[in-house]
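Appendix B. Raw example, untouched.
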Amino acid sequence: MEPAIALDNVSFSYTRHPVLDEVTLTVPKGDFAMVVGPNGGGKTTLIKLILGLLAPTSGRVTLFGKTPESAWNQIGYMPQYTHVDMAFPVSVLDVVLMGRLTRKRRWRYTKNDREAARHALSEVGLTDKEQKPFSSLSGGQRQRVLIARALCSNPSLLLMDEPTANVDPAAEATLFELLSTLNSRMTILVVSHDLGFVSKVVKSVICVNKKVLVHPTSNLDGTLINEIYGGDLRMVRHDHRCSHEGHCINESLTLPTSFMPHPKKP
């Protein structure tokens, strides 16, 4: 079977500054993979290469055995930043319908387009919001609308850039549950700085820092994180708290473990 994503000895440079160097990567169909790494390490560049927005300096990128340009209709993409003028009176359904735009037909939506958009909204639990102004929604609801826009074309591969940015823990938990369900029928690739996300729902971790290495989530430990980010990190435990007597007692494990940079002590 052809993998969902394959990079064969891919390098990319902006002018003379190398960003990715001789990357060979395979993401099998049905995988749920997370792209992690430091700022400037090449995560966004990797996604743009997969989308076909950038051409590699050397090497080859294929999606389902085809070039990115040939496989564009099999890709659903949710960018990190959405350039929507909140003063513009666009409805939730209008935003989702953008996912049905094609190169051949850009300006007229059909009955099938509207049915597909409504079905996507039902999958993210926002059927009752279709006529609401997009600007009136909460941050978590906007994220789900943008996921619906990506799902509207019934993709085989879903790419998401920082989907948990600017959402509260409750919205984040709902998002994880939705993505786990969607993974039963599509390959998912998510860029995130939140390593707590990795330990809950992700099958493999793609570590990007000019070079690219793939690890199962079971191998994610302090040594590996140090190698990815190039410095010491301290784990922040959400499953313990200190009592008045000074010792730690267990609490509910409902929140994910996260990591944050911490300077090395002398």
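End of appendix B.
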